[in-house]
Amino acid sequence: MIRPPLRPLARILRARETGQNPDAIEAENRARRHAEIQDKARRRAESRLILMAAAFACAFGTVGVRMGTLAASEPSEPQAQVMGARIMSQRADITDRAGRVLATNLLTYSLYAHPHQMIDPERAVTGLMRIFPDLDEARLRADLTGNRKFLWIKKKISPEQMQAVHDIGEPALLFGPREMRLYPNGRIASHILGGAAFGQEGVSSAEVLGVAGVEKAFDGWLRDPSNEGAPLALSIDLTAQSAMEEVLASGMSVMNAKGAAGILMEVKTGEIVAMASLPDFDPNDRPRPLLKGDPSDSPLFNRAVQGQYELGSTFKIFPVAQAMDLGLVNPNTMINSTTPMRIGKFRIRDFSDYGRQLSVTDVIVKSSNVGTVRIAQLLGAERQKDFLVKLGLFEPTPVEMVEAPTGKPLVPTRWPAVTSATVSFGHGIAASPLHLAAAYATIANDGRKVTPTLVHRRSRPQGEQVLSPQAADLAISMLRQVVTRGTARSSEVPGYEIAGKTGTADKPRPGGGYYEDKVVSTFASVFPASDPEYVLIVTLDEPSVRRGAGQSRTAGATAAPVAAELVRRLAPLVGLGPISDEKLPNIAARFEPHVEPAAPPAVKVVANN
Asked: Packing angle between helix 317-325 and helix 369-379, nearest 10 degrees?
């Protein structure tokens, strides 16, 4: 900006010509300039005053509003925070396939103290010991009378305990709200759910972290706020799960077993409807894991997923089905069943002498070890191993549980002739009952691979075709005859067409060899045989039941009758009614023995080695 001069030349010259005083012109211009400067300064001061007045008005208005809000609110005592980081405590619910709650969150309170603010520590100790007798009185007294500034007393307490602590009247005993994980059904599905524990903790909140089961496997998903609290829907049915655990517990008691496992799985989808392991536990009060001894002695041990058992004769259907698929045998092919048979320095015997020959069907029906070995010899070790790999018997099951990787089958590193023989009838290889359920489901699913899952309605790719539908159908027909006229007659339930196989295996000693009086008995089944919908596996650990003057440990006398009771209880619960008597003859006709032409080349006789 150009300021006008105080003595403009033109006016000064004119003033001198006319005799005026040039200094008057300068004085006039100076006065005008001062007036302009004063006006500008006044306007600037007025603007600042207006701005300051507005700021003071906003500040006093905010203070007034806050004072009014505090005056209208309920009074509350400020609570000290142990840590400044915000803790995400919300965790999604877990439900069964029908939406019934299996795990949820419950608002509870923690109890802590500020010992340096204690008025009467001795009185507080006496009152707390009366409410919480599990506390260490000497340590509590030392903590409350020492120099500590903060002390956790209980991480979660009940409303009754909270009121009792409040009645002590000690102001330094404080409560903090938090969420805890609640399992409203107690022990039901405890091994599946696993349990939860507190992670990062503050006095007013705590992280809830999964420690086992699906709680651990889906921990990230359950804690993810982007899921907007949507529950995790499992495939199990709460009613069926409860019934299975009840029947298994009764069967375990009657059969004097050390433990039991049961699995009910859908054939087409692989969804596990019920899966139980006994003994079990309450996830609301999860016990501590064993630090020594046999892991299976702990109630935390999941026999259905982690148990690695030699499952005995339940494996016999695998080499037979594979041999039929390859065209090496048919149901009426005659097999040399002379017992005992020798492989190197080892001798393999049958439970009874079944004569010189058995049909392939009768090898399964009578559960002939010798006949099964003869069929496995037709396959050869490499083809036998390849089929078992395709059935998933060499790797852990991919079921959605953190314990699944620990259930990897125990498979021989070498596969000589004797190993091939023993594996064919379920010895020398150890797998979990869930492995067996998946393998039987694959056969029942027209030979297409089935993968077990605990998530309801999860889309999965179609499994590999590991067995032809024709061979799978013939295998189911043989398993049906095991129930109608073989070793599993005690598993028959009228109207449900049970097809299955018993398996009794001696338990191995930790130091080598086998016990003479301890077995694992298993019954693997599918039903209904004419159109398989479900697989049912029952395994009893060290069962023994009185039969006549002695004791019986065979699966036909122990696991099979328990499975029959499970079918009676579970089938109606999953909507499967018995087949009427009018339809049974037509359905049974489907499983009449397959008759080949009588020409000699159609019959194969496996010679003795």
From this structure: 40
- Please give the backbone phi and psi of residue 40, each rounded to the nearest 5 degrees, phi first: -65, -40
Edge-to-edge strand order for the sheet containing 499-508?
A: 272-278, 259-266, 534-541, 514-527, 499-508
Which residue, among 158, 161, 166, has the nearest Cα to 106 in the 3D structure? 158
Q: Which of 78-92, 465-479, 504-518 is least confident?
A: 78-92
Helix (H) or strand (E) holding 103: strand 101-113
549, pLDDT greater than 90: no
548: Cβ contacts below 8 Å, ≥ 6 apart: none
Tokens of 481: 């005859």
Non-local (6+) Cβ contacts of 478 within 8 A are: 317, 320, 331, 360, 361, 364, 365
Query: What is residue 257's three-state secondary structure?
Result: coil
Torsion of CA 179, 184, 186, 192, to 10 degrees: -80
- Full DSSP string of 483-525: HHHSTTGGG--TTS--EEEEEEEEEEPTTSSEEEEEEEEEEEE
Tokens of 221: 């998903």
Over residues 210-215, the mean pLDDT reads 96
Residue 162's Cβ-count burial label (10 Å; 0-12, 13-18, 19+) is: middle
pLDDT in tens, 485-529: 999 999 999 999 999 999 999 998 888 888 988 999 999 999 999
Q: Which domains does the chain have, with CATH numbers?
A: 94-233 (3.90.1310.10), 240-279+308-602 (3.40.710.10)
* Confidence check: pLDDT of 584 > 60: no
pLDDT in tens, 343-401: 988 899 998 888 999 999 999 999 999 999 999 999 999 999 999 999 999 999 999 99
Place of tokens 């619960």: 573
Q: What are phi and psi of 343, to 5 degrees?
A: -125, 105
Query: How many CB atoms are closer than 10 A to CB 551?
Result: 13
Global model pTM greater than 0.85: no
pLDDT by residue (tens digit) across 429-439? 999 999 999 99
Alpha helices in 448-593 (DSSP H): 469-485, 559-573, 584-589
